Backbone:
């Protein structure tokens, strides 16, 4: 944060949030400085002795944790590089975009906000995706705000591109709306830069991962792709990104499928998770991880 010139209205916002407490929803298009503001707020609130949670809900350009998942951290101190924040809890969405995954995204944010509050967080800062245009984006943001009962909505906009999202909340009891300009220090990233960021995040996450095997009888698949399995198409799952979830459907880790052997009744994957004893559910994602750790979307196998 030392390289960024902090505008006075950020300082005023931090003091307001300190007084209000509750859930803070940070919204804006891509490359508007949402993550930078979220991390700044967390640091300022920690200085004021608040217990703070950050929910990184931008699955494509995550502040911390792996892509394709929503991650939550409860920091004691804000590190110089937020991507190194230790993940407290994680919810696997299975995509780096909310498009086509609106339900998973809303449920994941809600569950992680609730878990933050249960863990004693006084302020929960939600860093959202840059998906803000069109009816689906409006519905997604509206229901995130409604379900989490956000006390503060912080909107970073260049003009009036967020107004369709903001107007319904202008007169909401117990909610404050902040329309802020974008910092002049904000950098715009290209598609290639965003893709490279994800590749590095996957590579970092799976560094040191090991090959593990699980009996299919011990777990249940979410999105089971029954038709593909019934046809014996185990190879179709190779390199598919999955969430290894506990009985509450929080992700203990992510994995990449190497093979599903229907004859032996096993699923083999690589994962950084040491012990698989808590894995009860495997959520199949919509992304395949390439050998160089790049990602690509796949057509859902159960619709084939």
Residues:
């Amino acid at each position: 944060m030392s390289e960024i010139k902090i505008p006075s209205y950020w300082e005023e916002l931090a003091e307001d949030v300190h007084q209000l407490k509750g859930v803070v929803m940070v919204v804006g298009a891509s490359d508007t400085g949402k993550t930078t503001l979220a991390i700044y707020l967390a640091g300022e609130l920690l200085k004021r002795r608040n217990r703070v949670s950050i929910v990184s809900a931008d699955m494509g350009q995550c502040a911390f944790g792996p892509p394709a998942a929503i991650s939550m951290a409860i920091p004691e101190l804000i590190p110089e590089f937020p991507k190194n924040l230790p993940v407290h809890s994680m919810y696997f969405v299975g995509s780096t975009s909310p498009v086509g995954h609106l339900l998973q995204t809303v449920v994941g944010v809600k569950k992680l906000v609730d878990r933050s509050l249960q863990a004693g967080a006084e302020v929960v800062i939600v860093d959202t995706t840059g998906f803000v245009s069109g009816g689906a984006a409006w519905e997604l943001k509206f229901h995130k705000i409604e379900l989490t009962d956000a006390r503060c909505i912080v909107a970073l906009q260049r003009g009036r591109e967020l107004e369709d999202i903001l107007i319904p909340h202008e007169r909401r009891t117990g909610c404050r709306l902040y329309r802020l300009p974008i910092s002049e220090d904000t950098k715009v990233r290209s598609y290639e830069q965003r893709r490279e960021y994800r590749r590095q995040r996957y590579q970092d996450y799976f560094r040191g991962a090991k090959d593990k095997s699980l009996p299919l009888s011990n777990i249940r698949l979410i999105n089971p792709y029954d038709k593909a399995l019934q046809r014996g198409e185990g190879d179709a799952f190779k390199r598919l990104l999955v969430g290894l979830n506990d009985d509450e459907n929080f992700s203990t880790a992510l994995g990449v499928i190497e093979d599903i052997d229907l004859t032996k009744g096993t699923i083999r994957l690589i994962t950084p998770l040491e012990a698989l004893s808590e894995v009860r559910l495997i959520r199949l994602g919509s992304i395949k991880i390439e050998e160089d750790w790049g990602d690509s979307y796949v057509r859902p196998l159960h619709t084939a």
In short: The mean pLDDT is 91. The first helix runs from residue 8 to 20. The chain is about 25% helix and 25% strand.
